[in-house]
Every structure is written in structure tokens, then in C-alpha cells.
Amino acid sequence: MQSSHLQLAKQIADLFAALPQVEAIALAGSRGNRLITTDSVSDIDLYVYTQGEIPLEARQSIVELSGGAKRADLNLNYWGSGDEWINTRTSIEVDIVYFDTIWMKEQITRVVDQHQASMGYTTCFWHTIRQSNIFFDPRNWLASLQQKCQIEYPETLRQNIITLNYPVLRSIIPSYAFQIEKAAKRRDLVSINHRLAALLASYFDILFALNRQLHPGEKRLIEFTINNCELIPSNFEIEINSLLQFTESDIPNLPMCVNNLLDHLDQVLNDEGLIKIPPRSNPAKN
């Protein structure tokens, strides 16, 4: 991590640490993740774990005390509670995400202990806690939760993720593949992109579960897969890119591209004994 980012992150963390509502603070995201390389556009992601809401005035004061802001969007609640600003002194983007301690502990328990799967992104919070760089944790609340997250990947969770996410790829009538096929016939670009995103969410959840890898979130998934997964479907990168870089003339071929992608996933799952591919009829014998 660059020294300017680290210095600013620690300064902001120290300011939050003085607030009575704050239980723990950790650096996360690409700057805190040892498994993903940072780049020039990476911001500072600080996760602030709280017991009670921090007043807006206190958060505004932290922005000013840490160097002010060229632009600030505080009290954001679109994707959970958070604040973002661009530091005046360094031009570094700061992203603060607030998590209630009880809520976060429930998310970890649901996955790590109860082995409950989600429709995509099942193990993201587990990954977040496990990879966090703790800055402030006076009662070891976060350290204890992080220790809980050091277990081996439960086989039951692996099976549950695949069981939940696999049918929606193309096995059931309202599957993503079927919806993409219908959207392609209508040449409905918005619907195509919406369903492709959903398909890839479940696809990567299955792929990471297959490899017993925790889901790193939304960024650099192709790179993460190549660097950290042993079981990768054939033509993985080529087929993902072809789906995401399609032109209008490619629309009629999208269903075939989706099926090619899923065929290769099926083959890996079949080889690992996690699904059984039904035999296909030989057209030459019909």
C-alpha cells in the first residue's frame, strides 16, 4: 500500500476511534487485500463497525480534520450506510462503510457456522473479515470474529452454494440462460445485460465454491480466478470476455455463447463428482 494512502487511512481511523459508537475499524478492499494487486484508481476502504449510529456532525468533523474534501457525499444509504469524499490534500478517494456489529456477526454465523448459501456472493463478508487489516479493536471484537473466519472451507457450504445457484443458470424454466435467450430474440439490450450480470453472479459463486475460495466481491474476478483457482473451466477467460464485449451483430449468438460457458462449467463440476451430466443423444443414430 502506498505510504500516502496508509497515512491518510490511519489518520481517519484514529479520528473514528475516538467516537463512543465505534467498536472496531479495519482497512479492507483492494488496498487491504493481499490477494489482489492495487492500481492507480484504488481508493481507501475503511470499514467502521459500530454499536449505534454516528451523528452526521461527527462524520463531517472527521472529513475536515483529516484534510477537508474537494467533494463529499455523506450519509449515503443506497447500498448500505456509508460516506465518501475526495481528500483535498492528497486527492485520494475515501470510502467509509458502516457495519452494525450484531448484523455483521450474524452474516458470518449464517455462512461459517450454519452453511447457508445466497444467490451469488455467498462468502463475500467472510472474505472481508478474513482479509481485513485491523486498525482499532480495543475489546478484540473484530479479532475474535476474524479468528472465527480462519476455518477451512466447509464441504456442506460448498455443496449448498452449488445446489442453490446451479439450477438458475439454465436448469429451470425461468433460468438466466432462458431469459437471455428471450431477451436476445427481442434484441432487448437492457434485459440482456441485467440477466448476464445475474448469471455471472451465480456462475462465480459456484466457481469459487468449487475451488473452496472465498468470494472477493465485484472487482477483478477474472484475474482473481486465474491467480487463485485450480479448477477453471476450459476457455474461461475467452468466453467470459466474449459475453461481456458483444456487439449488436453478436446478439443472435449470445445464447450459444452462454451455453458454451455453462457447458465447460458443467464439465468441471461433473469431473469433481458434484453434478452428473446426462448423456446426450447422438444425432447420427436418430
Describe the protein in words.
There is one protein chain. This protein has 286 residues and is of the alpha+beta class. It folds into 2 domains: 3-148, Beta Polymerase, domain 2 (2-Layer Sandwich), CATH 3.30.460; 155-271. Helices cover 50% and strands 14% of the residues. It has 12 helices and 6 strands. It has a 6-stranded mixed sheet with strand order 3-4-5-2-1-6, with helices on both faces. Mean pLDDT is 91; it is low at 30-39 and 280-286.
Kindly list the characteristics that best describe this protein:
286 residues; Beta Polymerase, domain 2; globular
**The first-level CATH class name of the largest domain:** Alpha Beta
The chain-level structural class is: alpha+beta
Strand order in the largest sheet: 3-4-5-2-1-6
Radius of gyration in whole Å, from Cα? 22 Å
- The coarse silhouette is globular
State the domain count: 2
Helix content: 40-55%
Give the mean pLDDT.
91
H/E element string? HEHEHEEEHHEHHHHHHH
Strand content: 5-15%
How is the CATH topology of the largest domain named? Beta Polymerase, domain 2
Level-2 CATH architecture of the largest domain: 2-Layer Sandwich
Element layout with pairings:
Elements (H helix, E strand, L loop, with lengths): L2 H15 L4 E7 H4 L11 E7 L5 H10 L3 E8 L5 E6 L5 E8 H13 L10 H8 L1 E4 L4 H8 L6 H16 L5 H11 L2 H22 L10 H8 L7 H9 L9 H18 L15
Parallel strand pairs: 2-5
Antiparallel strand pairs: 1-2, 1-6, 3-4, 4-5
Helix pairs in contact: 7-9, 8-9, 8-12, 11-12
